[in-house]
Amino acid sequence: MTANPVEANPNTAPAPALVVRGLTRSFGRVRALRGVDFTLASGEALAVFGPNGAGKTTLLRILAGLLGAEKGEVIVAGEMLARGDVRHRRRIGMISHHSLLYDGLSARENLEFYARLYGLADRRGTAQRALVSVGLEERAGSPVVTYSRGMVQRLAIARALLHDPEIVLLDEPFTGLDQQAAATLRSLLGRLREERRTLVLVTHNLDEGLELATHVAIQVAGRFVECGLRSGDTASYRARYAQATAGA
Amino acid sequence: MPSTFAAAWAIAAKDLLLEFRSRTAFLSSLVFTALVLAIFNFARDPTAVSTTDIAPGILWVTFTFAGLLGLNRAFALERENHALDGLLLSPASRTALYLGKVVANLVFVAAIEAVALPLFALFFNMPLLPVLVPLAGVIALATVGFVVVGTLMSAIAVNTRFAELMLPVLMLPFLMPPITGAVQVTSRLFGGRPFSEVSAWLKLLVAYDIVFIVLCVLIFEHILDE
Amino acid sequence: MTAIERAERMLRRSSFFMALGLVLMVAVYVRALRFTPVEATQGPAQKIYYIHPPSAWVAFLAFGIVGVCSLLYLFLKDPRLDRLAASSAEVGVVFTTVVLITGPIWAKPIWGTWWTWDARLTSTLFLWFVYFGYLVLRSAVPEPGRRARYSAVLGILGSLLVPFIHVSVLLFRTLHPKAVFLNPEGPGLPGPMLATLLFSLGVFTLFFFGLVTHRYAQATVVDARAAAEADDAR
Question: Mean pLDDT over residues B109-125, rounded?
């Protein structure tokens, strides 16, 4: 099902932040993605709901440039995302349920390392600001292995946003978080929305993504069975989701 | 955007920092090396065979074992928390990642060799000082060949079942030329033989290094290209 | 014709070639044993010579195919190249094993020892190890795309390794009789023996291609069936 959630005035609209067309990808006999399309304008947030095995992570990894697509294209800010293209990597940040951090290093060391990799000027300053923004400046010198799950998630977010990406991809970010940590994460994500970053959030938990999203898609067995502006309340989405996943 | 070398250096420095912090892998490899050397002392009959005859073989088998232990850590450490994804998301090229890992591995293996060599001289009563410089040269040549290929193999092996077994099985045929060359040159160095006898072996070592450095650098990205 | 039907036709044709090769093999042995003179110094044991060098030739040819397919695969990403490389490797390792078995069988009555570290046998031994690594790696990676990539990398590296191993062994020492029929003064082998050897070489090569095509066709059928299943499951 093709989706086109952008309703901006064609005269003044800039190039959409993210355009995805016919994305297809298999792993041997497993068809993870069978043609996914959507368009997101800058500042919009797409929440993709789907059961395990729907191909949501595959979709995100292709957007992040970690996987190649067999067919289809991804266009970031008007430029095609080609294999091995490093320009886009500065525009995209990814928050996963894995922290992508080194347990043996401290928070500050982790951030300064990534600042080096992204070629950021003033590594110290950038890292410090990032630590303050997620409230970790006090424990910044301790090795990450001593952190609680919530602290690790906050640091992972700091790492993902270090290079100030326009597009932020989130892969089941609420996994394993307790109430308090989840609340912190929600407020951080709210801040991302305020900063007008483009978000794509992937999750199997309706409650997590719905309040954040401007657009909602339901992915089942590699395809979007529904995609459009968020309309209706949580209950109606729950019903549609249940219907979509039951039929699969 | 950082240059390839800057990114490689950052990755190598990060690896070495992590290694230095935990020290477990390094110390275990050192102790393992000492053990292997000690066992070799009993794996021979000192009355039947002179030490000088088998010493080069002992040295290089020991270096090989110690090196194989060290190679696995390079990519194993990126599995924790899926840190490799973080590296692949960054603008650092795959080549930078490979070179960074090679440099880190070289430092690690060189550090072990730096301890193993005096220990070897001690245990087997081999006078190394007169030939120290050429010996260091041939050790460097063989180690570079070994680490360049081994780092690439470890990137492959880390994603397979039985990774610790897969790496030696894949690696050992590739070690035959550098180790053979290294042992021959080392043997002639210990025996005080003239340079002309070893020039062919040295050319082999250099050729091997050049061919495989170029090949591995070119081919590495295909391993991570999903 | 569907993909499966095409693959099955290939399988039938390659079976024919294999059978032809097998028949010709028998012909070679008959000629070698009955119609070729016995060699003066080495005696009847020398007859194994008609198996040993042809097998070695095929063993290295097979790995050459693996190397070329591996290189092409990295550029073209065509799964057929991967299938061909794998088939060639499976058949090649068998011929390599034959070389390593016939070598000692020949060596023992001639030189008195089962194993000699001469240049060619040693290179073949290491070739066997490289094949083994290649096949073991393939079995340890379940996902086909990744398996093809890793195998291709190993195939290329292995192909470049083999000449280095050969040079290393040559520098080390050699005991192997020289390639008698490549002697520039003229063939060192008397006429009938040379003829049998060349005949054997040709037959082995034909048999090799028959086996590889057959194995490749088998793999194609398996993949085509799996793809059809996946399609139906939609």
Answer: 92
Q: A93: which strand partners?
A: A168
d(CA A12, CA C232): 47
Chain A closest-CA separation from residue C226 CA (Å): 7
Contact assignment for C158 to B149 by CB distance below 8 Å: no
Neighbours of C35 (CB within 10 A): 10
For chain C, 234 residues long, the average pLDDT of each consecutive 10-residue run is 80 85 82 70 69 90 96 94 95 94 83 78 93 96 92 96 90 52 44 79 89 90 82 67
C144 touches chain A (CB under 8 A): yes
> Residue B212 in 3-state DSSP?
helix
Query: What are φ and ψ of residue A168, in 5° steps?
Result: -120, 125
- C227: exposed, middle or buried (C-beta count within 10 Å: 0-12, 13-18, 19+)? middle
Rounded-to-integer distance, Cα B87 and Cα B93, Å: 9
Say how far apart CA C132 and CA A211 lie, in whole Å: 56
Q: What is the separation, in whole angstroms, between the first and last Cα of chain C?
A: 22
Please choose, from the candidates B199, A27, B48, the residue with its C-alpha nearest in 3D space to the C-alpha of residue C148.
A27
Asked if C129's CB is within 8 angstroms of B173's CB, the reply is yes
Residue C201 near residue C54, CB atoms below 8 Å: yes
Closest CA to A157 of A112, A111, A102: A111
Neighbours of chain C (3+ CB pairs under 8 A): A, B
d(CA A169, CA A202): 8
For residues A147 and A159, the answer to whether their CB atoms sit within 8 Å is no
Which chain C residue has the Cα nearest residue B218? C153
Under an 8 A CB cutoff, do A105 and B2 touch?
Answer: no
More confident of the two residues A86 and A68: A68
What is the predicted pLDDT for the residue at C225?
A: 84
Nearest CA in chain A to B78: A102
Check CB contact under 8 Å for B223 and C161: no
With an 8 Å Cβ cutoff, is A67 touching chain B?
yes
Q: What is the 3-state secondary structure (H, E, C) of chain B?
A: CCCHHHHHHHHHHHHHHHHHHHCHHHHHHHHHHHHHHHHHHHCCCCCCCCHHHHHHHHHHHHHHHHHHHHHCHHHHCCCHHHHHHHHHHCCCCHHHHHHHHHHHHHHHHHHHHHHHHHHHHHHHCCCCHHHHHHHHHHHHHHHHHHHHHHHHHHHHHCCCCCHHHHHHHHHHHHHHHHHHHHHHHHHHHHCCCCHHHHHHHHHHHHHHHHHHHHHHHHHCHHHHCC
Half-sphere exposure of B123 (CA within 13 A, CB side): 20
Closest residue to A116, CB basis, from B2, B81, B86: B2
Residue B192's Cβ-count burial label (10 Å; 0-12, 13-18, 19+) is: exposed
The answer to whether the CB atoms of C145 and A31 lie below 8 A apart is no
> How many whole angstroms separate alpha carbon A64 and alpha carbon A62?
5
User: Are A28 and C227 within 8 A, CB to CB?
Assistant: no
Its pTM stands at: 0.89
Q: pLDDT value at position B141?
A: 95
Nearest neighbour of B82 by CB, restricted to A100, A104, A119? A100
CB of B201 within 8 Å of any CB in chain C? yes
C163 touches chain A (CB under 8 A): no
